[in-house]
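To illustrate the input format used throughout this study, we show a single complete record. The first block contains the structure-token representation of the backbone; no residue identities are included at this stage. The design step must infer an amino acid for every position from geometry alone.
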């Protein structure tokens, strides 16, 4: 299996566990991850996962990187020296998981107001793989119009909607389904859920 280099954004939408699990799976597979987390994303780590986020680099090492063969590089949203900020760097794509409606709007309108938005803008302008995993409900017309705009530009919109045909019984199984679909969109092999037609 070829190793990939991927940019991953985690925003303040509910569902931080999706981003955490995705990064863990990528690192398990030996891939390189350029990680960007919004301030609201850090707050959701505290609220949903009950993580103490004062020492951020140490936390990421303990919760995401430690013992895994992949390479994790964390970038603050003002550090534009990140390779993903330039089209001259040839990475394998980017995913924002979960993606807030504020970040989605910034990407849809080319704001490039921070590193995460700039990296997404680079993916669009260079015609590279960009996957957004919105986690919002209900959706208003502005949300839907922004998603349609991005979809027409070739961005894959992958809502955090778990399947139930595999008869999940734990929260982990629901999370793994969404993360597995995200990995599929990035062309990263995994075995996180049973596919339709596979025997239990």
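Output of the design step:
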């Amino acid at each position: 299996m070829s190793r990939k280099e991927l940019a991953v954004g985690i925003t303040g939408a509910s569902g931080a566990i999706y981003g955490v699990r995705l990064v863990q799976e990528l690192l398990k597979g030996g891939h390189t991850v350029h990680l960007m987390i919004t301030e609201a994303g850090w707050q959701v780590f505290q609220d949903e996962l009950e993580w103490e986020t004062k020492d951020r680099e140490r936390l990421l090492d303990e919760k995401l990187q430690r013992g895994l063969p992949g390479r994790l590089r964390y970038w603050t949203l003002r550090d534009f020296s990140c390779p993903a900020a330039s089209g001259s760097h040839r990475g394998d794509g980017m995913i924002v998981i979960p993606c807030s409606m504020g970040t989605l709007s910034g990407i849809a309108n080319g704001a490039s107001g921070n590193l995460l938005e700039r990296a997404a803008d680079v993916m669009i302008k260079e015609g590279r793989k960009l996957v957004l995993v919105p986690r919002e409900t209900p959706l208003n017309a502005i949300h839907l119009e922004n998603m349609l705009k991005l979809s027409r530009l070739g961005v894959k919109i992958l809502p955090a909607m778990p399947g139930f045909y595999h008869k999940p019984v734990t929260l982990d199984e629901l999370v793994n389904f969404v993360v597995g679909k995200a990995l599929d969109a990035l062309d990263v092999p995994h075995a996180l859920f049973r596919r339709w037609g596979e025997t239990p």
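Structural context for interpreting the output: The beta strands are 5-10, 32-37, 71-75, 94-99, 130-134, 156-157. The chain has seven helices and six strands.
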